[in-house]
Amino acid sequence: MSATLRFDNIGKVFPGVRALDGVSFDVNAGEVHGLMGENGAGKSTLLKILGGEYQPDSGCVLIDEKEVHFGSAAASIASGVAVIHQELQYVPDLTVSENLLLGALPNRLGWVNKSAAKKHVRERLAAMGVDLDPNAKLRKLSIAQRQMVEICKALLRNARVIALDEPTSSLSHRETEVLFKLVRDLKADKRALIYISHRMDEIYELCDACTIFRDGRKIASHTRLAEVPRDTLVQEMVGREISDIYNYRARPLGDVRFAVKNLQGDALSAPANFGVRRGEIVGFFGLVGAGRSELMHLVYGADKKKDGTIQLDGQPIKVRSTGEAIRHGIVLCPEDRKEEGIVAMATVAENINISCRRHYLRAGLFLDRKKEAQTADRFIQLLKIKTPSRRQRIRFLSGGNQQKAILSRWLAEPDLKVVILDEPTRGIDVGAKHEIYNVIYQLAERGCAIVMISSELPEVLGVSDRIVVMRQGRIAGELPRGQASEQSVLSLALPQAETVAQAA
């Protein structure tokens, strides 16, 4: 049987980086083919070649044994290819229906037929089992809802070749189940699918075959994935054995370093109260929309609170802006690195130093460029950020390496007291996760109070000393590490009616 999609000896070089080096593998109709590898291994670059954003420097792409050349994204789409990228691509001020039909909006005498567009989108979304309001503007939606819009956009095109890059990175459990059903339906309909994920459970649940990338090269392809041990895939990805990805390290805990009392805001349905001790890692878990990020935005001064107090080392402090929070030693790594984290046109070094550079002023006027360079190089090495140099623009880095640069920005602050991490390992490979967890433990061992928000329950259970669970805009309860299990945490996170239904 001939392959629907074939990559034949694909090579791609950027200044100072060989992103792909002689990559070849096939994807058959009616097959879900997983791609795995560390951040910067070349997976997303390959999808951008398939999607017409990049052209290969060597080799070719074949569809139905015919060589194809995509000079643009439009050419790729016209050939029956749909690529769902990890970094979302949408128009925030357009509605769901306008985003889904962008480039193919129904019209009447040159005027967009909005009622026909909404009707078509509503019918298709209902058929796919996706609950989205066609009239809602993308700017008003959560990250998870925007992710579903991107996924549905590709599916509406009826493409024969579909590639998904970390599609569940922001989805709730319920939305993930909807996506999995869509993938299985597409497989049954004989589409050829590529599925990139760092979540091993997803790869084994959905994929028939798998190809492993490392440093731009294909390391291995497994046509019968179910027969391959998980440890084998991890070792092929990172080039070394990782026995325990979380590598939890117990440590003595001090007094309460950071406390939130009676905090109220528009996104919360009840006042929030919690504390974090010196050296403690408190994990915040909840379903998408539970209010975790919104609570931390209030704490950090990014959103205006209605009432409540914040205490640091037993003393009340005022946090009316993010600048005030940083001056108190409170920092936040945001969930949406593209819109709230990186400065896309700036270099890696500038992104790392953007906050701490106030400490590098000479005579209060001149930047000490040498110190900035030393700081950037130190964290590039410490977090193993894959970049040809500190002068590379950060937008050319993979999503995971951008995340490492954001984390470096706050690690470079000299007087950290409270570190809030919102989905710190979203879209990051297993090896990089292991490194980031070690950095988190090191911060805790220095006496920092750590708050970590994560939608990955195994991660919360694996790293945290204590888990706070949020549900529908309020804190539903908390559990010490020794009493926390998937069942006990989910029983707090799920609405009562859903918990009863699951028990039945």
TrEMBL record:
Residues 5-240, 251-497 form the ABC transporter domain. InterPro entries: AAA+_ATPase, ABC_carbohydrate_import_ATPase, ABC_transporter-like_ATP-bd, ABC_transporter-like_CS, P-loop_NTPase. It is found in: Cell inner membrane; Cell membrane. Keywords: ATP-binding, Cell inner membrane, Cell membrane, Membrane, Nucleotide-binding, Repeat, Sugar transport, Translocase, Transport. GO terms for molecular function: ATP binding; ATP hydrolysis activity. It comes from the Bacteria. It is a peripheral membrane protein. One of its GO terms (biological process) is monosaccharide transmembrane transport. It holds the Pfam family ABC_tran. Its main location: membrane. This is L-arabinose transporter ATP-binding protein.
